[in-house]
Write a structure and sequence with these properties.
The complex is a heterodimer of chains A (about 400) and B (about 475).
Chain A (H helix, E strand, L loop, with lengths): L9 E7 L10 H16 L8 E5 L12 H7 L6 E4 L5 H14 L6 E7 L27 H16 L3 H19 L13 H6 L2 E3 L2 E2 L9 E8 L1 H6 L6 E10 L3 H4 L9 H14 L4 H4 L2 E3 L5 H10 L8 H6 L16 H5 L6 H13 L13 E10 L2 E11 L2
Parallel strand pairs in A: 2-3, 2-4, 9-10
Antiparallel strand pairs in A: 1-7, 4-7, 5-6, 8-11, 10-11
Helix pairs in contact in A: 1-2, 3-14, 5-11
Chain B lengths: L2 E8 L3 E4 H8 L13 E3 L7 H13 L7 E7 L10 H8 L7 E5 L5 H10 L6 E8 L8 H5 L3 E8 L5 E10 L5 E2 L8 E2 L2 H23 L7 E5 L7 H9 L21 H12 L5 E7 L2 E9 L11 H7 L2 E3 L2 H7 L19 H6 L1 H4 L3 E5 L5 E2 L17 E5 L5 E9 L9 E8 L4 E5 L13 E12 L4 E10 L2
Parallel strand pairs in B: 2-14, 4-5, 4-6, 11-12
Antiparallel strand pairs in B: 1-7, 1-8, 2-3, 6-7, 8-13, 9-10, 12-13, 15-16, 15-17, 18-19, 18-21, 19-20, 21-22
Classes of the chains: A alpha/beta (about 400), B alpha+beta (about 475).
Chain lengths: ~400, ~475
Amino acid sequence: MASGIKDKVVILGMGCSKFGERWESSPSDLMVEAFEECIQDAGIERSQIEAAWFGAGIDAFNVGASAMPLAIALRLNYIPVTKVENMCATGTEAFRGAVYAVAAGACDIALALGVEKLKDTGYGGLPQRSRGVENDMYWPNLSAPGAFAQLACGYRAKHGLHKDDLKRAMAHVSVKSHANGVKNPKAHLRREITEEQAINAPYIAEPIGLFDCCGVSDGSACAIVTTPEIAKSLGKDNLISVKALQLAVSNGTESSHDSWDGSYLKTTRIAAQRAYDEAGIKKPKEEISMSEVHDCFSITELVTMEDLQFAEEGRAVNDVLDGKFDADGSNPCQIDGGLKCFGHPIGASGLRMIYENYLQFQGRAGDRQLADPRLGLNHNLGGFPHQNVCSISIIGHYA
Amino acid sequence: MIGITAYGAYIPRARLSRAAMAEANTWFNASLKSLSKGERSICNWDEDTVTMAVEAAQDCLSALDDAAITSLYLASTTFPFLDRQNSVVVSEAMNLNNRIRTMDISASQRAATSALISLLEGNIKGTALLVASEHRRTKAGSRAEMLWGDAAAALGIGSANVIAEYLGSETLAVDFVDHYRGENVSFDYDWEERWIRDEGYLKSVPSAVNALLENFSVNSEDIKYFILPTDQARTPGILATKLGINADAIVDNQITNVGVAGAAQSVLLLAKVLETASKGELILLIGFGQGCDAILFRVTAAIANSKPTVGVTGALAARREETNYNKFLSFNNLLERDIGKRGEADKQTFLSGYNRRKDFLTGFIGGKCRECGTVQIPREKYCVNPECNALESQDDYGFSDKKGTVQTWTADNLTFDWNPPAYFGMVEFEGGGKLMMDFTEVEAGKIDSGSRVSVHFRIKQFDTQRGFRKYFWKAIIED
C-alpha cells in the first residue's frame, strides 16, 4: 500500500504574474514575472534548482513544443526540464512532477511553472484547435461552453429543476466570484456584477450565458518545492505542505457506456475520494477551509460542489443560493476570484490556485484573507464533461 | 419479366419561398416576378448529391431486401467528386455488399433515363439500384434559380416482384445544345426557351416516342402517365397534344412546390406516379438532353404490395419553410461571407486515418461485445463496459437504422458553423450505445432532453483549401 504524498514535500516559494490581456508581454515575460517573485520568496539561488517541470497547454498559440522555452526564459543551468500537457490540469501536472521528484529523492529542490498566452489568437474564447486526426472526423466542432452546457442540461434533467432556478444559482456562482475578484490585485476581471446581469446576458451556448463563462487571459504561476527538512535548514518556519495530489482520467465510460447520465463529473468524484483518503480527510465539508475549483463555467463549479462532497447530490442549487460558498459562507470557494476573474491560461491555472492557498495559509491574502484556514483544495477539470482529466491537490499547514 | 421493383425519394426539408427570392432580385430582373409563386426545395448546407442519394436509396431499400442488391448506379450532373466514385460512397454509407457493381453516370439531363435503359437491357442479376440526385448551382437572380429544386430518387430494378414491367425504349442521340456547362465553370449557359421548345422538345421527343409506340403497338391515348421533365410550364401540354396523349396523363413537374430536379427529375416523377398507379396502367417516361430517351412501363398487380417508408408524398410533407434568401446564397457558396477566425481552422482530412475508420465514419458501424452484450460506438479494441473490458470481443453493429433519444444538448453560438448556432449533444440509442454528435435541421425550441432522433448521412465539414468534404452521421429530431 502506497504511503501517499502527505507531508513529504513543502512549498519553498511561489510566484504569480498579473493575469489579464497582457498584450505587451510575451510568454517569457510572464514566466520571468512569476519566477522572480517565486525565487525571491524561496530565498534561494537559481543554481539551487535541480529539476523543473513546465506546464503549457496549447502549443500552437503559446510557446511551442518541448521544455526549452522555460529553460531559455529563465536561463536554467542545463538542468532536466520536462514539458507537461494535460489539458486544463496542466498546471497541477507540472506541480505533481516537481513534488513527486522531491518526494522520490531524485532531487532536493524542484521548480514547477505554468504559462499560457491565450490572447495572441486574434479572437475571443479559447483557441480553435484540432482534437486529433481521427477525432476531428466525427466529434462535433464543440466549443468549451458548448461542451459544459451539456452538463447543465444533464444536471437539470436528472434533478427535475426548472431552468430559471438553475440559471439563478449559476448566476450566483459568478456574482460571488466577481465580488471576490474585486479584492485581488492580480485578477483580470475586477468588477462586481449582479445576478440580473448574469441571467440576462446573451447565451454563448444555451443555457450558458456570457457571465457564466470564465475570462480568457494570459498568465503564469510557479512554485519551488523541497523537503520539510531542507526548508527548515534554509530557515523557513510555518511550512506549507502537500497533503494530496490526485488525477483521474476518463477512459471512455462516460462517453460510451450507459452507466453515466451526464449530470455529474465522474472523474471529480473519483479523484476527490482518493485525495481525501491520501490526506486523511474524513469529513471534507467540515475539514476543508477553502477551495479553488475549476469554474471554467458557473455550472461546472455548481456541480463540482456536489462531486467534492461539499453539497448533497441535487442540493447544490440551494447551497449556492444560501451563500455557503461565498467569502463569508461555511465553505468559501474561489476566494481569489477563481477562473471567473483570473481567466484560464491553461498551463498556469492549477499553480495559480495553489498560490492562493499558499498566501492564505501565510496570512498574506490582504483584503480577502480568511480567518485561520487549515486545508485548501484545488481542482482542475480538463476536457469535456463526457471525456476529461481531473486533478485535485490538497495543501495545508505542515504536520 | 424485368422492370421496376421498388422506388424511393428524398426532397430536402428546407423549402425556400419564391416570393422571398423575387423580392431580393426583381429590382434587377423584373421578369422573375412572374415566377414568384410557391417554393423550391433547397439543400441544407450539409446536404449534397451524395447525401440526398443515400436518403433516397435508403427509402427505396425500405421496400426491398438489401442483401439482393448487385449494383448501384448513381446519375447526376452535380457530383461532389469528379474523380472519386460517388456511387461507392453512397454504397458504403448504406453498408451494401462491397462486391456490387457501381457506376456514376453524368453529363446530361437524361443521365438517369439512359442509365435506367442500360440496366433494364443489361441482363442484370439480382436487384440493381438506380439513384438519381441533383443539387444544381445557379446564378443569383436567374430564372433557373427560381425554377429548379434539389432532390433525389431511387429505383430498384430486377425480375422479382416487378411493380412496373419494362416494355421497351427508344433513344435519340442528337447534339442539340439547349444548355451546357463547360470545364472549369460553375454554372449552366443556356439559349432562348422558345427555340429550345420548338427545335428541341417538339422535334426530339415525338421522334423517339412515335417510334416506341409503333414498335410496341401502343396507342398514345392509352398512355396513363406522361412524364416529361422540363422547367417549361407549357411544353408538356403542347407535346401531349402533338402526340395524341390525353391532357390528364401529363405528370406535373412539381415546379410550384419543389422545382425541377435536373437529372433526378425523371426518376422523382416516376416514383411519384408509382405511389398511386394501378395494375395495367401505362407509363411513358422521357429523358431530354442531347436528344431524348423514351421508356415504356406497364404497372403490375404487385404495385399494391410495394410502398417505401417515405416516398415523394412523405418527402413533400417533411417540410420546413425558409424565407431567408441570403441563407440560400450562403449554403450554395454564391457569396463571400465573413466566417470569422474560428472558421479558418484547417479542415484537412487525413486520408489514411479516414480509411482506417471508414466503417464507423461512413457506415456508422459500432460494436456489440460477444462477452457481455454491450453495444458501443465508436468501437475500440477493449469493450467499454467497466465490468467486461474484453479484448477484440466485438462484432459489427450498425447504428444507421437506429432511433435514439437526446440525453443532453446545447445550441453553441461560439463555435464555427455554416448555420449557427451549432446544435450537438449526447444521443442514447435504442438497444444500447451512445455518442456525442451533431444535430442538423434543428428548429429552435424543438429540442430537449428526451427528444427522439433518427440519424442521417450528412456533410461534416468542407476542406475548401483542398476541395475535399468529409461526411458523417448527424441526428435529426423526429416530429
